[in-house]
Amino acid sequence: MRLHVGCAQWTHPAWPQPPRAKLASYASWVNAVESNTTFYGIPARSSVESWAAQTPPDFRFVVKLPQIITHERRLNDIAAPFHAFAAAVEPLGLRNHAMWVQLPASFAPADLGILDAFLRGAPREHRYAVEVRHRAFFDDPRAAAALEQLLLRAGAEWVPFDTLTLFGQPATSLAERDAWMKKPRVGRRTVALTGAPIVRYIGRDSVPETVAGWEYLVELVVGWLGEGRSPTIFLHTPDNVEALNLARRFHAAVRELVPTLGTLPEPVSVEPPTLF
Q: In sequence order, what are the residues at sequence separation of 6 or more whose Cβ sits closer than 8 angstroms to the Cβ of residue 115?
């Protein structure tokens, strides 16, 4: 029984990290990460080899497919870039927990045939997790059911991005205002389709408000663990200053209710720089 927790990035100016091996330092705090950098281009294989070398075997990467696949070509005629991407991230091995298919907000229920064809033809050695942002998938039960059935047939997971806490009150900081402009306003999902559900949760700059908003998610994860599932939860805030601490705090909250849950690693201390 294992719960993986992490953040949307593995480095932040506010986090205590050494100048080098920042990923290794991050991996001493939590056991998963969203690989958002891969959205902007296929990484060099040497870079991915470094990622693998800095993380333990049970660390989880959820690697986002490059935008050329999901946004520019919208899953059409993507055999070449997909295989190039899969080859680039191959050094992660089992650390590559899922290929994250984040689709643009314009990807509507009418486009489900394209997603179905992609998942049918995708290499089976990878797990796939799909994130949609079109409001119809959350507001129209028929559209939601159609997507669920498609994903179930493919053995893929639906990745919800829970933004309700973020939008629960007016923005009070520049970071929250920026998040209000960029993050999707979609309904909350609490259904797991596979044994490895993934949830992205974004709170607010206020730690108490963020913690209060995730109470339902703690209970949900406890239930999933009881069903034998192995969830991965990513904790965000608008500025992400406290995200690393919040991820550990979330894990601790679940462990209070599931004492048999494995522990997170002990963070590596970062010594202040010296002159000698």
A: 75, 101, 103, 107, 130, 150
Domains and CATH numbers, the chain: 4-257 (3.20.20.410)
pLDDT in 10s for each residue of the chain, 276 residues: 799 999 999 999 999 889 889 999 999 999 999 999 999 999 999 999 999 999 999 999 999 999 999 999 999 999 999 999 999 999 999 999 999 999 999 999 999 999 999 999 999 999 999 999 999 999 999 999 999 999 999 999 999 999 999 999 999 999 999 999 999 999 999 999 999 999 999 999 999 999 999 999 999 999 999 999 999 999 999 999 999 999 999 999 999 999 999 999 999 876 544 433
